[in-house]
Amino acid sequence: MAEHLNIIENGISELTDDQLDTVVGGYGIGDTVTCSLTAIAYCPNCAALLKNFKATITGVRGVLKGETIYWVTYHCCGHKSSLIESDILR
Ligand SMILES: [Zn+2]
Q: Measured in angstroms, how far is the CA atom of residue 43 from the centroid of ligand 1?
């Protein structure tokens, strides 16, 4: 989990308001999505396995390599984190 977040920290770009309008795309604030991280990981707060887990999108943090980084709240325990678009199951 820590490694996954560090990758996001290092390469992230913040967005202008105009860019925000174009990248939010198919997801909006308040949407509940099902996610699955590419690596095996556990919630840092409650240790739930982060596989096919539910989260609510609470904001857009920025963009990394063309993918949107969202702020989310995990449904397991309310833990707040950021999540890359490719970890959301379509
Ligand atoms: Zn949790």
A: 5
